[in-house]
Amino acid sequence: MQIDLRTVTIKPLRQTFDHVAAKIGGDKPATRYQEGTIGLQAENNFHYRPLWAPEYEIFDKRRTDLKMKDWYAFKDPRQFYYGSYTINRARMQEAAAAEFEFAEERDLGRSYPAAAKRRAIDVLLPLRHVAWGSNMNNSFCAAYGYGTAITQPCLYQAMDQLGIAQYLTRIGLLLDQPEVLDTAKQAWMESADWQPLRHAVEDMLVTQDWFELFMAQNFVLDGLLFPLIYQRVADSLAAEAGLVLSMLTRFQVDWYAETSKWVDASVKTAVAESSDNQALVSDWTRQWLERSRAALAPVAKLGLGAGSEAALSEVLTQFKARAARLGVTI
Amino acid sequence: MSTVFIAFQKTEDARGVIDAILQDNPAAIVNEQPAMVRIESPEAITIKRATVEDLIGRRYDLQEMQIHLITLSGHVDESDDEFKVSWTR
Amino acid sequence: MDDLKAAKKLGLKERYALMTRGLGWDTSYQPMDKVFPYDKFEGIKIHDWSKWEDPFRMTMDAYWKYQAEKERKLYAIIDAFAQNNGHLTLTDARYINTLKLFITGISPLEYMAHRGFAHVGRQLRGVGPRVACLMQSLDEIRHVQTQVHSMSNYNKYYNGFHAFTHMIERVWYLSVPRSFFDDAITAGPFEFMIAIGFSFEYVLTNLLFVPFISGAAYNGDMGAMTFGFSAQSDEARHMTLGLECIKFMLEQDPDNLPIVQRWIDKWTWRGTRVLTLVGMMMDYMLPKRVMSWKEAWEIYFEQNGGALFNDLARYGIKVPDCIGQATVDKEHISHQAWATFYQYGAAADFHTWMPKPDEMDWLSQKYPNTFDKYYRPRFEYWAEQHKQGKRFYNNTLPMLCQVCQIPMLFTEPSDPTQICYRESDYKGEKYHTCSDGCKSIFDHEPEKYVQAWLPVHQIYQGNCFPADADPSKPGFEPLPEVLKYYHLNNGRDNLDYEGSEDQKNFTAWRDLATKN
User: Fold this and answer.
1) How far apart are CA A32 and CA A30, in angstroms?
2) pLDDT digits (tens, 9 = 90+) for B4-43
3) Of C4, C85, C220, the CB nearest to A8
4) From which domain of life does this come (chain A) (predicted)?
5) Which chain B residue's Cα is nearest to C247?
6) Domain extents for chain C?
């Protein structure tokens, strides 16, 4: 049927769904982020208790010590829903794909200077497993967190970290033979340089308070690791051997800059809610900061040699300034 | 032997894949429904990258199929060159 | 040089293995059983997770690329449909009621699938299945959002869409799909994989997303068609995951067979019961119909499901007993369900109606064994009553099945004139179920099903009134108060389609569009 509707104006009965209107201050047009996020998680009248955790409801506020009057106070400044998320990541992957293709076609891995290659392999490849740990930790938050506003971006973060682990894998395959991945895993499992970090990551894997885990992984550990590796170490490799590795880790740099905005907004919201939350979040940050700093020290040394202590302490100073800006007391 | 099937959205892009299936799977039968095309075949359906590329005149990654695929039934075996749906493994 | 070339020639499988399972490690600072505490208690024995065969091998970059492409296409259509008032090109506004059932009853399940797969994607010990589950978790949030976004425009112009998140937690018939998913997610991770990955995705979603969505297209709903088909393309991945998971369990240890068989029996029946709603949507709520529920069932369940069970026979899996009853039921359930909703149309969040004479003829033709004999006389009687201004509404509350939570509306497999009841005792209380299938599910896990939040029981217990209601006041009328508790706008969201605000608006707006 062909209908010419250009001249028809019909008046809507309402602008958005009731539960969205209730959160955005009345019945007015809502964004796709809002309609695709607000109130989607069930909160009442659950039918059965989980067999695997009968002390909790399916979704339960008591799975963290953090207290919020409204769990939809959390907002993702990127306003990611699935469509905007994937379209954004598709753009980033297109840029990364071009870099990898360029490097692969010209065989830049082969011509990359041997000493720098050794260093890049030693530092970057075991980080595949750290990214995988973050995938697990963020999927934990996505599964057991409360309210779509915070659980949704946690799943995106989990998948992003899987993507990062896969980009690191590709770097390994570009620089060397596939066996190099086994060697890196062996270092992750056995080398003294990596044990404090692996120990910290494994302790996170059994952390039961999901918001503590969110803080430990996304705020603290990544807040030190990304600047350390993808700025400091990448710059040092660039100075020695050109920009190849900087090209191939551009995804991580752009990603960290973007996701930090979301992490910061979440931390700020949690802290601003109450003095109890502020104390709790500060406490978690302090504990995991000390732990992460110690765990990263040998990794920094592996990547930067003599200058590593200074670099790590600069990264730490920046982190503390960031925490203070968000209202976290260290 | 059980029948397998695969269905695609009725779009321009899916045309090349559907034609490639018909070319490489002589037993396949096409069933047109509103907005979709369903292809059935006894035993197996194989989609060959090379055939699709010949038909559409460009490089084709079999994972591109995700864009217009609707559904399928059977075990999937996927490689760079072939995508196979069958009840035998 | 030669070595380098060899490295580049890694095939899809090897490459994918390095990109996924190569990432995991056996923890030693913390015991593996503490990192993965939930994947053993169900009794499923897995000896070697590396034997898992990845069904689809998509790395994240390919996933982003192709899914973004799908999203761009989908939202372009949603935008165009909204901008051009596409809802006015529908065959008939009765169609919109299927979407109300969809957004209130099905979209929230997509959300639960998203969270459920995040949970299982964290908890299974093998990296391969974990990655596949997480990808599915991501797809499922896509599904709920694309559905909400497609229907957002309908919500602006039609009733019954406005409170879907509130209703799924409360309304009597919505506890049917809700409890299905609550049941799955509260089970262990392997049972969840059978319930959702296998039964729901493999055996059942084809029935929803293929013939029903094809019907949406046939009725002029481009938005629903696009989200439906686009979602089902993800389901193709999900189905292969479910199938792989079942085979993996069966191949790992012979002791897994009886456990898996029991889950298959249970979830095939649970799913079949939930699909009653889809059967009714196809036969009664689509103004133009592509095929009958019975035909869809034969193609997508009997034929495809049959092929699947043939394949699983080599592991010792038997076709579930309940299929016998489902085969009898396929000629009845859509009519029985619609008759129920018609009667309880005052308490439903969508409009109901009696089929027009030509629609009854179509039903007679599609259901030669049952429609004229058991259902047409009643439907014609109700239609006649309505014509005389006596539209029939049933004001009593129905008894619900303790397991599937559907009102007791199904008949005995051996006698379509007898309502089927079954009864079990547990700790001195009687519990009622609608069928042998549901009774056997109850009897196996009574401690679970006695927890059910049964809407009718809850109403009788006084838990479904607004906070300010006072049931002890003289003249207290329970039904309007329950509707308030549901956030169901009495007189706008419910009652017969004939005379509804939706009907009036659609006619007026379409006149505006087609006449000068």
Assistant:
1) 7
2) 999 998 888 899 999 999 999 999 999 988 788 999 999 8
3) C85
4) Bacteria
5) B75
6) 59-514
Q: Please provide residue A209's backbone torsions phi and psi, each rounded to the nearest 5 degrees.
A: -85, 115
Fold adopted by B3-86: Phenol Hydroxylase P2 Protein (3.90.56)
- Pick the closest to residue A247 from A89, A94, A102 (CA basis): A102
Token couple for C195: 């319930």
Q: How far is B23 from chain C (nearest CA, A)?
A: 23
C-alpha dihedral sign at C348, C351, C357, C363? negative
**Which residues in C lie closer than 8 A to residue A76 (C-beta atoms)?**
none
Chain C residues in contact with B33 by the CB 8 A cut-off are: 214, 290
d(CA C106, CA C338): 18
Distance from CA of C7 to the nearest CA of A (A): 6
Distance, CA of A43 to CA of A54 (rounded, Å):
17
Q: How many CB atoms lie within 10 A of CB C319?
A: 17
Measured in angstroms, the CA of C206 and the nearest CA of chain B are apart by 7
* ipTM score assigned to the predicted complex: 0.97
Cβ contact A281:A215 at 8 Å: yes
Please name every residue paired with B86 in a beta bridge, in sequence order, or none if there are none: B44, B75
Q: C59-514 maps to which CATH number?
A: 1.10.620.20
Q: Minimum mean pLDDT among B65-69, C43-47, C317-321: which range?
A: B65-69
Residues 170-209 of C with CB under 8 A from A: 170, 175, 178-179, 182-183, 185-189
Q: Do A13 and C512 touch (CB under 8 A)?
A: no
Residues in B touching C210 (Cβ below 8 Å): 7, 36, 70-71
Residues A131 and A159: beta-carbon distance below 8 Å = no
**Chain C partners within 8 Å of B61 (Cβ):** 62
CA nearest to C24, candidates A189, A219, A288, A155: A189
Long-range contacts of C386-390 (CB under 8 A, 24+ apart): C386/C354, C386/C496, C386/C498
Would you tell me how many other CB atoms lie within 10 Å of the CB of residue C413?
A: 17
A205/C122 CB distance under 8 A:
no
Residue C381 in contact with partner chain A when CB distance is under 8 A: no
Q: Crossing angle for the helix pair C222-252 and C60-83, nearest 10 degrees? A: 150
Distance from C-alpha of A223 to C-alpha of A330, rounded to nearest angstrom: 14
Q: What angle do CA C287, C290, C293 make, to 5 degrees?
A: 90
For residue B13, give the amino acid letter. Answer: D
Range A73-326 has CATH code 1.10.620.20: yes
Token pair of C467 as six digits? 């906070």
Amino acid at C15: R
N-terminal to C-terminal alpha carbon distance within chain A: 67
**Among all chains, which residue has been given the structure tokens 């300010």?**
C468
A166 touches chain C (CB under 8 A): yes
d(C-alpha C101, C-alpha C206), whole Å: 18
In the numeric block, the tokens 């707006």 are attached to C509
Tokens of C186: 């509260």
- CB contact (8 A) between residue C68 and residue A42: no
* Structural domain spans, chain B: 3-86
CA angle C443, C449, C450 (to 5 degrees): 105
Q: How many CB atoms lie within 10 A of CB C408?
A: 18
Rounded mean pLDDT for each run of 10 residues along chain A, 330 residues in total: 58 97 97 98 98 98 98 98 98 97 94 96 98 98 98 98 98 96 98 98 98 98 98 97 96 98 98 98 98 98 96 98 97
- Which conformational region is residue C35 in: left (phi greater than 0), alpha (psi within -120 to 50 degrees), or beta? alpha
Report residue A251 as tokens.
């995804």
> In one letter, which amino acid is C4?
L
Q: Which two tokens stand for residue C32?
A: 């593996």
Task: Report CB contact under 8 Å: C58, B64.
Answer: no
Distance of CA C46 to the CA centre of its chain: 30
